[in-house]
Structure prediction request, 103 residues.
Amino acid sequence: MNCVVIQTTFSSKDEAKNIAKALLESKLVACVQLFEIESIYNWEDKLCCQNETLLNIKTKKVNFSKIKSKILELHSYDVPEIIEIDISNISEDYLKFIKENTI
Prediction:
């Protein structure tokens, strides 16, 4: 079984938590970590600086497309960050945790 971390950002912690809970309740993900961050980026020819909440989502690789669809459905951004990062090494116990807590 291949596992991944999916990263996405939100303008509010409440929105991030709501989507994290929806993903967990659907059993698409095993764990979600929330981090308060500051992002600097170009948007519509302007340099922007914004506080955001970053989610690190741990799941099976086969669930990526369903998770991506759910994020796009619920996200308030026009162009949300949805990045899949392959996990090349993982402990057997954590792999078991992901397997047991996802569909």
